[in-house]
Each structure stands twice: as structure tokens, then as C-alpha cells.
Amino acid sequence: MSGYSLRTPGKGRGYNLFWKSFFYIALIGTIAGLYWTTQQVDYVWRWERIPNYFYYQDELNITSSLDGQISSIKKTGLNSLVIIKGEDNKSVQYEVPSDSLIVYQGDSIFTGDILGTEKEWKMGILLKGLLVTLKVSAISIVFGIALGLFTGLARISSNPALKMSAITYIELIRGSPLLVQIFIWYFVLGTLINSLLGKYDIAQIPSIWFGIASLAIFAGAYVAEIVRAGIQSVSRGQMEAARSLGMSKYYAMKHIILPQAFRRILPPLAGQFISMIKDSSLLGIIAVRDLTKATREAVSTSLQPFELWFLCAILYLILTFAFSMFVQYLEKRMVQR
């Protein structure tokens, strides 16, 4: 069976058509109401500026690095090769786009004088923030899974030290807000660690890694409980049967219990990591320019809160939806095996 759907018996095609129509009408009505509300506000929409927050073309000034005189200008295709000869017969050449050249042969040039401009495509602030969010989320998910798997196994271990350590870690992390943990990692642990590294002339750790550590450790506590519940949901008879066949406990756990448990814990794991992608927006408070912080900076400079915050929400939705689709793909692959 590919899935389960709660259906009301005795309801036919007309029933489904009515409620689907009701849904679409309500959705269109909500969008129309939102649009009407925005029209009542004295606000000028500037959606045409949005692409510049992903990629934009910047003009860079090409300046002279010495005092001297332009000895020659030679055209090479669309550019011009400008040669400046200094007082000590030292020559420096610059390649300047011909259509932006503002100097002529024989002109006297001083250090810092503009010879022309060149256009260069640069990454916008929102795209940079989106890439940081992807990086932080991906690394945190990997470390969260590893930490959660180890802690979950320790949680059900017969070793009292491992079990008590796992319980302490889980209760401490789950019992305090993520925002507080981010503050502790950055302002307390980060300050102590970087101060210690500075005493030995070792490069300091960037703030983004303290943010990743706080997210991974926070997610690991919840993953540990998910893993524990998944393993304990597998019948004890599975382990007993594997042990009766001569398998070691480690081998039986790796090849018998965990594969069955993973199928059951995949949906709650997906929900946990989707929440973590959204929780990464809190890292802006420790100077990590993720998507939310980048949007906030763009809003403060452009005064376009409506367009940019809508765009920020859509980008988070795309990230979480893509991750959800990937998890559904994994579920289908595991069912087919």
C-alpha cells in the first residue's frame, strides 16, 4: 500500500468537486483581499528592483597607480590598452573598455586619476544570504544526524554512564530556548575559545561556526529522541532472532534494526530539519548574514519592506518544500526495496 488517506464513505465525485472549488475560491479570495489591502496603503511597489538583489552589474573605476603621462593608447577589440609612463621611466599598462575611456594620449596623470570604468557582474545580497542559509543548514543537518544517532543509541544503552550522559544532554538542550543557546555559544563559549586561541596566535573561529554548532547540538537532542523511539518501535523479537542466528549485537543493530527504524523515523526527521532550516534565521543576531539578516539589511537601505519580506518568505518556502520533496523521494525508494 503506497499511502493512507482518510476518506468519508458515500461521498462521490460531486462532493470532491464542490470542496475543491471551495478551496480555490477561498484561496483566490484571500489573495484578492491581500492585494486590495495593499492598495489602500500609500506604498509604491517596485518589483522591478528585485533581480538586482540576486545579481547586478556594478561599475568599477579603473584608476592610475602612479604619476606620469599617457604615452600611448592602443585599441584591442572592445578594449583599449592604456600605457602610462612615469617620471623614472617606469611604465604601467591598463586595459580599459573603449566606450568608457575618458583620457587621451599625452595627458598628464596623477595617482588615483580615473582612466575609465568597467562593468562587472556581482552577486546580490539576497543570493549571498541564501547561500549562507543553505551552507549553515546543510552542515548542521549532517552534524545533527551524526550527533543524534550516537546519542539515541547511548540513550538505550545498557552502559549507565552513556545512558545518563545522553539523558542529561537531551534534557538540557530541549529544556532551553534555541535563542539562548545561540547567545551562549557566541558570547560565552565563542569569547572564551577565541581568547584562548588569540593567546597562542592561532586564527580565530568565525561566528558562523558557533551558529552551526548551536543548531547542530540543538537538532541533535531532538534527533536522539526520534532515533530512540524508532529503534524501540521495532519488535524485540527482531534482535532476539538476529542474535539466535549468531549475529553480534552491533551487526544486528546495523543491518537489522536500524534499517527498519530509519523507515519509521524519516518523516519526523524531515519535520525536525525543516524546522531547523527556518530556525537558522536566528543566526542573524550573531552577525551571520543569512537570508533573514540579508533581507533586513536590504530593507533598511531600499525601504522596500513589502517586496523583500514576501520574497524572503518565498525563498524559505522553496528551501523547505525542496527538502520535503527530497524526503518523500527517499521514502518511496525505501518502500520499493
Summarize the structure.
This is Putative glutamine transport system permease protein GlnP. By secondary structure, the protein is of the alpha+beta class.
List the helices and strands and how they pair.
Elements (H helix, E strand, L loop, with lengths): L12 H27 L15 E9 L4 E9 L2 E8 L4 E7 L10 E2 L4 E10 L1 H31 L4 H15 L3 H22 L7 H27 L2 H9 L4 H31 L11 H12 L2 H32 L1
Antiparallel strand pairs: 1-6, 2-3, 2-5, 3-4
Helix pairs in contact: 2-3, 2-5, 2-8, 3-5, 4-5, 5-7, 6-7, 7-9, 8-9
Task: Name some characteristics of this structure.
6 strands; 61% helix; OB fold (Dihydrolipoamide Acetyltransferase, E2P); 9 helices; four-stranded antiparallel sheet; 2 domains; MetI-like fold; alpha+beta; 337 residues; extended
Can you give a write-up of this model?
The chain is α+β, with helices and mostly antiparallel strands. The protein folds into two domains: 58-123, Beta Barrel (OB fold (Dihydrolipoamide Acetyltransferase, E2P)); 125-336, MetI-like fold (Orthogonal Bundle). The chain has helices at residues 13-39, 125-155, 160-174, 178-199, 207-233, 236-244, 249-279, 291-302, 305-336; strands at residues 55-63, 68-76, 79-86, 91-97, 108-109, 114-123. A four-stranded antiparallel beta sheet has the order 4-3-2-5, with no helix packed on it. It has a two-stranded antiparallel sheet with strand order 1-6. β2 (68-76) and β3 (79-86) form a beta hairpin. α2 (125-155) runs antiparallel to α3 and α5 (207-233) crosses α7. The longest helix has 32 residues, at 305-336. The radius of gyration is 30 Å and the shape is extended. The two termini are 13 Å apart. It is a multi-pass membrane protein. Belongs to the binding-protein-dependent transport system permease family. HisMQ subfamily. Keywords: Amino-acid transport, Cell membrane, Membrane, Transmembrane, Transmembrane helix, Transport.
